[in-house]
Amino acid sequence: MKVEQVWAVYWSATGTTENVVLATAKAAADRLGVPMETCDWTLPAAREKDICFTETDLVFFATPTYAGRVPNVLLPFLREKVKGEGALAVPMVLFGNRNFDDSLIELRDILEADGFHTVAGAAFVGEHSFSRILGAGRPDADDLSVASSFGVQVADKVHQMVQLPSEPVAVKGEAPIRPYYTPRDRHGAGIDIRKVRPKTSDSCNNCGICAAVCPMGSIDPQDVRNFTGICIKCCACEKKCPVGAKYFDDPGYLYHKTELEEVYTRRAEPELFI
Q1: How distant, in Å, are the alpha carbons of 48, 110, 113, 114, 215 from that of 79?
Q2: Which end of the chain has fewer surrounding CB within 10 Å, N or C?
Q3: CATH code for the part of the protein at 5-178+267-273
Q4: Confidence at residue 91, expressed as pLDDT on a 0 to 100 scale
């Protein structure tokens, strides 16, 4: 197949998804000898306009996994603003060391419905948004090496293709898509953290970084202790605060975070589908 441009397209609140997809797309572009472009739609303003591709594009399209799925707040943008127009696509998801469950197959199906032809897929590990223990420091050098190798393999597959695939790429996941993963307490009751928001300590110096990096635009830049919209627990405000002023104290959130760290602190590995 003829590819004239490779794209890295991503939503990445804390930079982990971005690091993986950039390494993958760059390796593919270098292998094919074509330019690479990026499209970062993490912040609200980037999601206000359509993003459109052509049949000579190869698009590495990446999102994080939230509760085993594509984050539900991203679904309207993915379904309404993204136009494949016959481009080749590689769905990629990042998961925080637990599991990617159905996020990859869900993203694949969304891209197919958007007019892409999916030719490969991958799930990579990144540091969990809630934690500095789960997947700490990942994607690391080994992960990025795997990502680059994956990009080369995708490029070779596309270069050898003589016609468009008749079926979406086979990836791990279930159909129909399962419900979002629900954390539970020690008695088996569900823990609802949807309305939990971080607190701001007295160490805050009102630099405004937290408001600038919030992917939902939910922190008031004039008063960073004030939330004007939803919090999706991406923890960009917490992890990017230079003085560590953002923190969570909700008991359910902290219980779930501790449980994840106790059960899933091991080295999960990327999974590739070509």
Answers
A1: 13, 7, 8, 7, 18
A2: C
A3: 3.40.50.360
A4: 98
